[in-house]
Amino acid sequence: MSLEQSLKDRSESKCELCSAENDLSVFVVPPETNPTVDTSILICETCKSQIEDPSSMDANHWRCLNDSMWSQIPAVQVMAWRLLNSLKSEGWPQDLLDMMYLEDETKKWAMAGVGPGADNDEPTLDVNGTALNNGDSVTLVKDLVIQGANFTAKRGTLVKGISLTDDTSQIEGRINGTRIVLRAAYMKKA
Question: Cα(170)–Cα(57) distance, rounded to whole angstroms?
């Protein structure tokens, strides 16, 4: 059986990201180069063109990831994670990323194919100069007035599961149920 036929059987002849039924083709999930059932997904032309040309991304098209991120297929999970990660500035993708769970090997694969902006050589440092990583917990070292949310985050507040941003001086985290961007210089690794 051909690779394309195997993927059609697995996906019921639908795009594994958005469920479209037309113009389907095999897409090998980078950095893999060997097209196999485990390293490839079946996607439509719309998804493929937006993946290959990120400047043409239509965030509303990718709302379909709300469903496909729950796939049991690691290659589909990897692409859903990468796409949500690239769109997280939209707001709603970050909420989906917060719910998404990947096995360790799948997470490594997902992170291996993230573009040059994500594997920044300069680390994000807390107030003590300690490097921060995605998923770390931090504590505020001073009171912060949260603009637009009408509350003050008090010194000593614990922020769990932070996300790093493209700007190494900032992190994202949830305080009082609100996802906000915070200055890393006002945080101490917990």
Answer: 25
Question: DSSP character for 188?
Answer: E
The parts of the chain modelled with pLDDT lower than 50 are 116-120
**What burial letters (b/e) apply to 129-160, b meaning 16+ CB within 10 Å?**
eeebeeebebbbeeebeeeeeeeebeeeeebe
Q: Can you tell me whether residue 158 is helix, strand or coil?
A: strand
Tokens of 78: 């990897």
- Residue 111 sits at φ, ψ, to 5 deg, of -75, -25
Specify the pLDDT at position 114: 66
Phi, psi (rounded to 5 degrees) for 78: -60, -50
Q: Cα separation of 7 and 5, whole Å?
A: 5
* Cα 156 to Cα 57: distance, rounded to the nearest angstrom: 40
Tell me if residue 84 falls in helix, strand or coil.
helix
> Does an H or E element contain 24, and which?
strand 24-28
Q: What is the pTM of this model?
A: 0.60
Are 112 and 31 in contact, with CB atoms under 8 Å apart?
A: yes
Give tens-digit pLDDT for 109-161: 988 866 544 444 578 889 888 889 888 999 999 998 887 778 888 999 999 98
Nearest one of 157, 158, 163, 156 to 180, comparing CA atoms: 163
